[in-house]
Amino acid sequence: MADLTPLAISVLALLEERPMHAYEMYQLLISRHNDRIVKVRPGSLYHTVERLAGQNLVRAIGTERAGNRPERTTYEITPEGSQALTRRVESGIEKYVYEYPLFPVVLSEAHNLDADDAVLRFRRRVEDLDRWLADIDEVVGAARAAKVYEPYWIGGAYVRSQIAAERDWLATVIERIESKDLEWQPRKKQ
User: Domain named Transcription regulator PadR N-terminal: which ranges (predicted)?
Assistant: First the structure.
């Protein structure tokens, strides 16, 4: 069986809590701000649920219609789904996998910008990261205030530490460029 995608992990974890339909899963992921750690779109969520059903990791247990709303199929996790979730969480925790993010690629090509332009764009990114940090702090603060058991939001704390490290690193790069400690050659015009 192929590795579970981040969205598949999230779906199985929700179904460990209780049976639910895909739209309820979507709403719950959004309300819990899980869209900050996994890409959640209604279409991809429905596709993921169907794929998991095809792999016998979840199964439909009923269909209902309320008023003019579309039919909604309720799913539950199977014993095989519970085992697959556990195995994926275990392997995901213990084995580092580099995920090829975009930022290191564009950062490696930042030398194509003039120093002033690079600094301007680095500053904008720092401002954006500061907004992300404030948002995460608000969500984590609300979880703490509601006395949500910390293992349920530990992923948010991890993401916060990554974003803060990037912001701090970028602030240092900006200082180094401005102080000329990091020599930035003007790009050659053709």
Answer: 11-86
Task: Please tell me whether residues 133 and 149 are part of one structural domain.
Answer: yes
Whole-number Å distance between alpha carbons of 23 and 27: 6
Q: Which residues contact 99 (CB under 8 A, 6 or more apart)?
A: none
From CA 79, how far away is CA 85, in angstroms rounded? 10
Its pTM stands at 0.83
Please tell me what DSSP assigns to residue 187.
Answer: P
Q: Are residues 90 and 106 in the same domain?
A: no
> Cα(10)–Cα(2) distance, rounded to whole angstroms?
16
Show the tokens assigned to 177.
Answer: 């460029």
Q: What is the pLDDT of residues 156-171, one digit of tens each?
A: 999 999 999 999 999 9
What domain range includes position 23? 6-94
> Are 64 and 88 part of one and the same domain?
yes
Chosen domain end from 54, 78, 94: 94
- Distance, CA of 119 to CA of 95 (rounded, Å): 35
Question: What are residue 109's phi and psi, to 5 degrees?
Answer: -110, 5
